[in-house]
Design goal:
The chain folds into two domains: 33 residues, no CATH class; 46 residues. The protein has three helices and no strands. Helices cover 72% and strands 0% of the residues. The chain is mainly α.
Length: 85
């Protein structure tokens, strides 16, 4: 059995740290949460809610544009140049 390289130790430490941070963050988020905290109706009744709905519509339009643009760019970039066999 060979000893682990320093890069492997660093990768294991980073993985452990990220898993711990995610778990602690979720725990801190939910520790004093009430069901009413997750009710979106309070947000939608404010100006911030109206702004959120506008941004959702803009994001949907951006995704639709990207869905048309990305395949066209891929076809242009992967097409063989004329005169090559």
């Amino acid at each position: 059995m060979t000893a682990a390289a320093p890069a492997e130790w660093a990768a294991a430490a980073c993985l452990g740290t990220s898993i711990t941070a995610a778990a602690v963050g979720l725990w801190l988020f939910l520790i004093d949460a009430e069901v009413a905290d997750f009710d979106p109706r309070r947000l939608l009744d404010t100006d911030a809610g109206a702004r959120l709905l506008i941004e959702i519509v803009r994001a949907k339009a951006a995704v639709r544009d990207a869905a048309l643009t990305v395949p066209a760019l891929l076809m242009l970039l992967t097409a063989a140049p004329e005169g090559t066999s």
